[in-house]
Every structure is written in structure tokens, then in C-alpha cells.
Design goal:
mainly alpha; globular; binds protoporphyrin IX containing FE
């Protein structure tokens, strides 16, 4: 007898679009309210609705679901799209604090949760574009 092996995408394993919506909504609610995320909140527009929609669409494709972001905005090129913002270690840590808390609240499977935290963390590291040093006005780091 043969068994049909199926491998779930992270999108499916998480619970599809409704679960992703919940995650993104909680992530931005935390960014909006946690005092520890004040600096990264300040960097975002007054309304977080557009940011939430973009992140939801990006994560849908990134996790193996429908490529909603590409359909609406083209190739993500996230480093390029974050270039106008001075993303330093502190901003990265504040962003990850919100995402880690949202994932901890919403993903019960510890192995999957830890894998997702690592995946987000690697992406966040990759988006750092300045060391936050004085005189660094354009978000371009001075390289030692
Ligand atoms: C490292 C810390 C990060 C900071 C400080 C940061 C900050 C920002 C800011 C200020 C925006 C613009 C918001 C807007 O225009 O609505 C943005 C957009 C976005 N961010 Fe981040 N972000 C970070 C990490 C990440 C990570 C890890 C991801 C994905 C896993 C991500 C995905 C996005 C997406 C998809 C957009 C929308 C881009 C666009 O369409 O213009 N960001 N981010």
C-alpha cells in the first residue's frame, strides 16, 4: 500500500489567511501600544492600516500562500523598500519584540513558533541599514 505524503507550506501550517491576518493585526497592535516599541512606532505612518495590509500580503507569499504582494506592488525587494528608514539594531529589536510576542501568543506549536521567530529574526537582521551613529543622516552606515 502506498501512502500519500503531503508537506504543508508554512502558510497552511499556520492556518492560512485568517491566521496571518490575526498575527499581523496583533503585531501592529503591540507596536502601537508597547512603550518598548515607541521608536519603531514613530517611524511608521500615523495609521498602521496600510502597513498591516502590506505585511499581510508579503507574508502570504513568503510563507508559500498566494503571492498577493507581488500582484499588487511587484517584487518585494525589502532592503530597498526599507532604505528610506534608518533601521538600526534598536529598531530591529523593537520590531522583533512585537513579532516575538505576537507569535508566542498565537502559535501553540513550539517548534513551529521557534522556527518562525528565527526566520523573522534573520530577515530583520538583513534589513539593518545603519549603525545609528551620529552624522548618519541618510540611513547609510559608516563602515569600519
Ligand atoms: C528590522 C526592523 C524593521 C523596521 C524598523 C521596519 C520598518 C518599516 C517601515 C517604517 C515601513 C514603512 C511602513 C509603511 O509605509 O506603511 C515598513 C514597511 C514594510 N516592512 Fe518593515 N521593518 C522592519 C522589519 C521588517 C521585516 C522583518 C519584514 C518582513 C518579514 C518587513 C516587511 C515589511 C513590508 C512588506 C513593508 C511594506 C513595504 C512597501 O510595500 O513599501 N519589515 N517597514
Amino acid at each position: 500500500m502506498t501512502t500519500l505524503e503531503t508537506t504543508l507550506t508554512p502558510y497552511e501550517a499556520l492556518g492560512g489567511a485568517p491566521a496571518l491576518q490575526r498575527l499581523v493585526t496583533r503585531f501592529y497592535a503591540l507596536m502601537d501600544t508597547l512603550p518598548e516599541a515607541y521608536a519603531v512606532r514613530q517611524m511608521h505612518p500615523e495609521s498602521l492600516a496600510g502597513s498591516a495590509q502590506s505585511l499581510f500580503e508579503f507574508l502570504s507569499g513568503w510563507f508559500g500562500g498566494p503571492s498577493l504582494y507581488i500582484a499588487r506592488k511587484g517584487h518585494p525587494r525589502l532592503r530597498m523598500r526599507h532604505a528610506p528608514y534608518a533601521v538600526d539594531q534598536r529598531m530591529r529589536d523593537e520590531w522583533m519584540l512585537c513579532m516575538t510576542q505576537a507569535l508566542t501568543e498565537q502559535v501553540a506549536d513550539v517548534e513551529m513558533r521557534d522556527g518562525l521567530i528565527r526566520t523573522f529574526s534573520n530577515m530583520a537582521d538583513n534589513l539593518i541599514n545603519t549603525d545609528g551613529g551620529a552624522g548618519c543622516v541618510a540611513g547609510v552606515a559608516h563602515r569600519a
